[in-house]
Amino acid sequence: xxxxxxxxxxxxxxxxxxxxxxxxxxxxxxxxxxxxxxxxxxxxxxxxxxxxxxxxxxxxxxxxxxxxxxxxxxxxxxxxxxxxxxxxxxxxxxxxxxxxxxxxxxxxxxxxxxxxxxxxxxxxxxxxxxxxxxxxxxxxxxxxxxxxxxxxxxxxxxxxxxxxxxxxxxxxxxxxxxxxxxxxxxxxxxxxxxxxxxxxxxxxxxxxxxxxxxxxxxxxxxxxxxxxxxxxxxxxxxxxxxxxxxxxxxxxxxxxxxxxxxxxxxxxxxxxxxxxxxxxxxxxxxxxxxxxxxxxxxxxxx
Length: 302
Description:
By secondary structure, the chain is α/β, with parallel strands linked by helices. It has ten helices and 13 strands.
């Protein structure tokens, strides 16, 4: 089974304007919608679209948390969320008016007893399961939370997948994660230098592999993706053509597609192709990728 963890889920209130956003004035929406998410939940959502089951773990609070939990159930996602006694699940405002403006909520504090409840759920994971840790750590949690989670799972045959940036990603490398997914900007930050071209990106990915990561998947927005797999082979896929209308969730969708492709085919090449198709399908859509769009884009990839 694949398990995803979302420490700080959100309800995204997406507002579309026909004119540029005017500060200090009344702006009237031309359209609006609500998107239930958070990075791990996005991964679970696209896995469901691909027919690959998962369990979404994480924390919710208040009436907004109850709304999010009900909404995920309606979408067919299996969840095992921990309800917090105080606060409320955050609402993020995304204003699309030519360019995108975001106002993200802080979310509730996660107390130690709630984290212990999560640890107990993770203790039930078995060899062959996959655990996805995606995104940043809320301020209420210790900076070494990802390290503590991976240390607890060591030696149990659980494959850890980490989609994070900076020190949060660097510090989990000694625990041998199955997969890490930096984008090219995050990879350059870890390398401490600008990266130009595939050769330099590959070299930086190999440096992370030498520090413990088994597979390194580098997303490169419109330039597609590069995978350095655990055998040392490099796979490169260019992004299909399309108009980008949404940047939210594209990386999560790529990660979901990769994991589903790996589970279904056992081929890193096919996993990368499906991941690229899923990431692009989300980038070309208002919400997360739809199966028809994924299949159409997948057919365009070599």
